[in-house]
Predict the structure.
Amino acid sequence: MILLALSAVLIVVKGVAIDAGAYALFILGGLAMIGLGQYYRSVRSDAQIAATVTATGVFILFTLAGSVFNYMLLPVFFTPIDPLLLRLDAAVGFDWPVFVTWVSGFPFFGSVLRVVYFSSLPQMAVIILALGFFADGAQLQRFMLTGVFGALLAILFWSFFPSFGTSAVYDLPAEVLARMPMAADPAYGRELVRLSREGVTALSPHNVLGLIAFPSFHTIMACMSVVFLARVRFLAIPAVIINLLMVPAILVQGGHHLMDVFGGITVFYLSYVLSGQILRRYAAPVFERSTAAA
């Protein structure tokens, strides 16, 4: 709620036009889920459903608030670090245009990567349901905290060291794009560059773009899926398979530098460790029992 309030202040200060109706629907939806969760907690006395539904509402509100707040940091005031990331990629032998061109030679595989890339948010919903009904409250808490810390760390780093990915740097041949439509194509990259220079004048949840290249938040979510769904046996292997495919999907469909993936892994690790330390300190008995059981 603090992030939503701060975003609202920045919207007023910067004079950004807002699609109030669309955002109100998302906010009301999140609040309704939280209210339903409290109903199950206080009236129905079902802590499991209460925690799951409440976490869903909190996830909706935080995702919305994080996206809006990220946009309110535009235009950027620091030099983008994409040239540095390109040099680091080259140092380890990764050439993004060559890799994308190679993948485009397998159109079906490119289409699979597109589906995988857009599965990140649905995977987060699956994790909330799976942990809520098949794990315990402590793991659901740790998942939520890890996601919050991961998003905040990514936004904080990006605000000082902005980057917009390979799609903002390279153009690709028309035949490559014809063989394999991309989620973050060169036109997407050009719009990111424009926003970085001019800022945003109007904002709607229907047309927001992913601004952050490094660290890759898709990578953070992929790591969360693998680690937290490992606690739900029938989902563990599918999570590993899907998120192994997420790596090339992030590079190709997301227009990311290879270094963005390593940055995402690092931020996930820091967030996961930090969430564990906080839960051990403030919810020690429950958390320690759940960790031992896992």
